[in-house]
Design brief:
Blueprint (H helix, E strand, L loop, with lengths): L3 E6 L5 H12 L2 E3 L9 H6 L1 H25 L4 E4 L2 H14 L5 H15 L7 E6 L2 H11 L9 H17 L4 E5 L9 H15 L4
Parallel strand pairs: 1-3, 1-4, 2-3, 4-5
């Protein structure tokens, strides 16, 4: 039976790296964010107020399609970022910062509520918790030009919303604090994560 594993976390938390490592270890299919193909992302970081609604609707539609693809597939899929992060973290944050109008935000939320009735939560959610210094270091290391414009207060607000969302999350959940770990370079750190995942999924699958 196919299962849906999802990795959540702020920009630069290491989601894509861990997605690749776990997919290789378990032989799972990967579903990655198509940031380089996203037609709005560069414009958004240059002018958030102008492009916030367009960007969030693009993500909402793309992740809805991703979930449908996962559920009709035959293999377990590990997903880099979820539809819930868009709806509960990024869109409300943009609205609260005055970067998305109330009219657009309410329209977006109505659309999400309709979609939510047709989807299921992942079988396992993995949350990567990271402080601002770690996020900044990893964002700078990957060197995406459009991310040069990300503001520290933006990352801080996102972190606060992530923590509030995860505190109320009701599905199956694992949390890893990545500030003091390097699962990309340190095999022991990766093994520790895999051991905890093994303990969790052995009771689920």
């Amino acid at each position: 039976m196919a299962h849906h594993i999802a990795i959540a976390g702020n920009i630069g938390a290491g989601k894509t790296t861990l997605t690749h490592l776990l997919a290789k270890h378990y032989g799972w299919d990967m579903q990655l964010e198509d940031m380089d193909e996203n037609p709005y992302i560069s414009d958004f970081y240059e002018d958030m107020q102008r492009w916030s609604f367009n960007l969030q609707v693009y993500f909402l539609n793309a992740r809805w399609q991703n979930i449908q693809d996962i559920r009709i597939g035959q293999k377990t899929v590990i997903q880099d970022r979820t539809i819930y992060e868009d709806a509960f973290i990024f869109a409300p944050n943009l609205h609260s910062m005055g970067l998305m109008s109330t009219r657009d935000y309410e329209n977006y939320q109505r659309l999400f509520e309709n979609i939510k009735q047709q989807i299921e939560e992942p079988d396992l959610m993995i949350y990567l918790r990271a402080g601002i210094p770690k996020l900044v270091d990893q964002i700078q290391m990957r060197g995406r030009d459009y991310e040069d414009a990300i503001r520290l207060d933006y990352l801080k607000r996102l972190n606060e919303r992530y923590e509030a969302w995860i505190a109320d999350y009701k599905g199956e959940l694992l949390i890893f604090n990545v500030d003091d770990t390097n699962f990309q370079e340190n095999p022991d750190d990766l093994s520790n994560i895999i051991n905890q995942i093994e303990s969790k999924i052995n009771g689920l699958f």
